[in-house]
Structures are given as structure tokens and as C-alpha cells.
Amino acid sequence: MKFIRSVFRGFLRLMSWIISLISRGFRLVFRPIAYAAKKPSFWLWAITGFFLLVLGLLDLELAKHSSKIFGSDWLEWNWGWAAFFAQVLYILFSFRIVGPTEVGAKLFFGKPIQELSSGLTFAPLGIMSVTKETRLVIEEQYPDDPENVWKGDQNQMPAGKMPPIRVTHAQPAEPSDDPINRRMTTEVSIIVRYRIRGFIQFLTTIGSVKEARRQIRDIVVATVREELARKTPAQTLAEWGNINGILRAAIEKLVGVTASNGTSSWGVDVENVRMEEVDLGRTVNEGLRNVPRADLDKKVTVTTAEGESEKRRLEGIGSATALQVLLEAKSIGYAKIAEALKLDKGSLILQVETAREAMEKSKYSLVAGSAGMADIFNIVAAIQGILPRLKPEEEK
């Protein structure tokens, strides 16, 4: 009896040890499975594997059956092989390619379950699909690319065109000579550059690049109109960098960027935001372009006028000196001067009197180009040269 009890106790211990070992084995094997079962991808592959297993068993069963083609004894159709080749084609068509410049997501009946990087991926046809978008930086210009912006009458705007972003600026606090420091309406162009970082997050939050563009455009238009309405065009140009910062902050708030970790609820990174252009209009731009030339013409006009004034002043001084010479010649005597110059006395008197009368009538302001001026100054110069010799000794 003792022997039997000892054997029975040993058997119980052995069974307890085996059960414990089996239990540990089950925990070791099924714990990862239970953990993986919490993920959609696990169930996806489990269902796919089960589906392929069923198809394989079906192929084996169908392989037992054949059909004659057109009633021929030597040409048969094996249903097992037909199903196998159909399944091979199905698997081949279920592979998708994500390009090197793309980011993708695998959708299980429309629900995003896995983000994809570049390469080959398997997505069972009819069960899953793959959607893709560029992984490169996306650059958007608002309101649109220049060739798509309609600046004419909005009632006649063609389909596919966008109206410009028009902003009415503020009135300056004080009067200014600056031609653009005044109230006017301008057209603004904004460029936004961003990159998709979390594609599934982007899909579930915003949906598409088209929708992202629409929402960003709305916030850009509202922000730029609000900010520039407080500034004149001159102040806008002076504060260009600050306005870019305000626009970026507004867009980062829209896409849900948090200051703590810099992540975005849209799944995007905002790379850059800037004003590309503030269009003052063709008339104003042409006027500003001509301002430097107008300033130069103004300086030339002032310089010319000042030179002409100085010229006339000097010519007036010269005319007064000439008149004095002619008066001295009269007091000395035309006969002595005619003899010294070896001229006819009558001819000399005529020339001197004509010159003196002309200068007196012109009030000493003969100018270059006046009729007879060259002749007058020639005779004056000749007389002035001999006067020192003809003056009496007491006057020298």
C-alpha cells in the first residue's frame, strides 16, 4: 500500500509539473498573439491567412473535377488549376507601389489602418485600397498662380479663375510726401509651403490637399485683410517681415501646431509663409518707376536755371563795363581813338554811339545771341586796349 501511495503521489506531481509547463508554454506563445490581436493589422493578416487557407482547400477539392471543352475527349478543363491561376492573378493585382516621392496609407474598407512608405505593398483587391500623396514640400500661392488670377470685372470672370485678394489700407495719421503713404487699395499675393508628416492623421483630420488649400486660403485672406487694413502701403513695405510672422502664426494655429512639441493636429509641418507681392496697380507702379527720373530732371532744371541766372548777372556786369569804356572814349575824343586805331572817325563815331545807345536801351542786360552783340564787344575791347595810352597823365 505504501508503494502504491508513493507512485500515485509521484504521478500527481508529474502531472502538476506537466500542466504548469503547458500553462507557461501557452502564456509564452499566446501572450504576443493576444497583444497583436489588439492591432488592426493582426486581424487583417489573420483574416487574409484564413481566406487563403480556405481557397487552398477549395482548390484541392476542385482539382478532383474536370470538364471537357467543346465536348472534346483530349481537351479538358481542370477546375482546381483554373481557380489556382485566378487566385495568382488576384494576388498580383493586389500589390500596390508607393513611389519614392510619395507617402501612402492602406485603407481597410475605407478606414486608414497603416501608413506606408515608399516601396511595394500588398492590399487585397476589393478589401483594401491604397491612397497616396506627395511627401515633398507642397507650395501653394494664394489666391492662385498668377496666370489663374482674374483682375478684371468679377461679373465677367471666366470659369477656373480666381479673384485677387484686394485690401484697402489705412489712412496715414499725418500728411506725408511719400506717394504710397496714403489710403489706397492693393492686391496681395501670399505663398505658403508645408509638408505632410503624418499621412493617416492628415487623412482623418483634413481629408485632402484640396480641402487643406481651401481652409488655408480662407485664413490667409482674413488675416491679411485684418492686418493690412491698419497700415498704409508704405508701412506694409516697412513691416514686411513682421506681417509674414503674423501670417505664419495664424496658419500654425489653424493646423493645430502646439508650442510644447511642435506637432500638428493636421499631421503637417509649416515650412514657410511669406507675402510674395503687394501690387499697387499699374498707374501707381509706373508713377513710382518715374520718380527717380523726375528727381533728376528737377535737379537739372534747377542747375540750368541757376547757371542761366549767373550768366545773365555776369553779362550784365560786362555790359556795364562796356558802357563805361564807351563813355570814357567820348570824353577823350573820338578823333584820338580813331587815329590810334587807324579807323575812319565817322565810322568809329557811328559804331560807338550805336553800341552805347543799344546798351542804354537794354538796361545793361545784353545776353548771348543778341543781335550785334559780337560787334559791340569787339569795338569795346579795342577801345579798352588803347585807353591807358590816350588818358592824360594826371588821370593815370
Summary, kept brief:
54% of the residues lie in helices and 17% in strands. The protein is an alpha+beta fold and 396 residues long.
Q: Just give the CATH class of the largest domain.
A: Alpha Beta
SSE order, as H and E? HHEEHEEEEEEEEHHHHEHHHHH
If helices are DSSP runs of H or I spanning 4 or more residues, what is the number of helices? 12
Question: Spans of 5+ residues with little confidence (pLDDT < 50)?
Answer: 33-38, 364-371
The residue-averaged pLDDT reads 76
What portion of residues belong to β-strands? 15-25%
CATH superfamily of the largest domain: Band 7 domain
- Output the CATH topology of the largest domain: Tetrahydropterin Synthase, Chain A
Tally of strands: 11
Name the shape in a single word.
rod-shaped
Helicity, as a percent range: 40-55%
Per CATH, which architecture of the largest domain?
2-Layer Sandwich
Radius of gyration: 51 Å
How many separate domains make up the residues? 3
Q: Report the structural category.
A: alpha+beta
Distance between the termini: 177 Å
